């Protein structure tokens, strides 16, 4: 963000594309996880693969939930949320996509989150780590099964 644009916002086209991609991914991952769970239960196979898909589904879903918060906050709502969050004069916005953040800069220079829930980024990170670990375990299990 530059000094000549203190009230910068998230890029609208990027926000819309990420939101649409997130919604499609959540639906696709949910269907994939449910069918994987049903198939694993029927065949008596490991639930590791479907668990990994569910973890990815939860991580993408959490991030998409945060995008929805940004999408439905118009300029007026952002200004009101920032005024309430900093309890004083708002001098600018500091938006980021990773981590998902809509910061409100106060007159004293401090930045406070006003739109994205405080639990969102830690939960997304934790779910992403779980998804990576489960995916690694699926790959290790698959390699072990093909080399024995």
Approximately how much helix is present in the residues? 55-70%
How many strand units? Answer: 3
Q: Radius of gyration from the CA trace?
A: 20 Å
Write the element-wise H/E pattern from the N-terminal end onward.
HHHEEEH
Structural class: mainly alpha
Give the CA-CA distance, first to last residue.
55 Å
Keywords: Membrane, Transmembrane, Transmembrane helix
Transmembrane segments: 12-35, 47-68, 119-139
What is the fold's blueprint, element by element?
Blueprint: H1 12-43, H2 48-71, H3 75-86, E1 90-96, E2 101-106, E3 111-113, H4 120-146
Antiparallel strand pairs: 1-2, 2-3
Helix pairs in contact: 1-2, 2-4
Describe this structure in words.
The protein is mostly helical. Helix content is 64%, strand content 11%. The protein has helices at 12-43, 48-71, 75-86, 120-146, and strands spanning 90-96, 101-106, 111-113. The chain has a three-stranded antiparallel β-sheet with strand order 1-2-3, with helices on one face. A hairpin with a 4-residue loop joins strand 1 and strand 2 (101-106). 26% of the residues are buried. The mean pLDDT is 89. The chain crosses the membrane at residues 12-35, 47-68, 119-139. Keywords: Membrane, Transmembrane, Transmembrane helix.
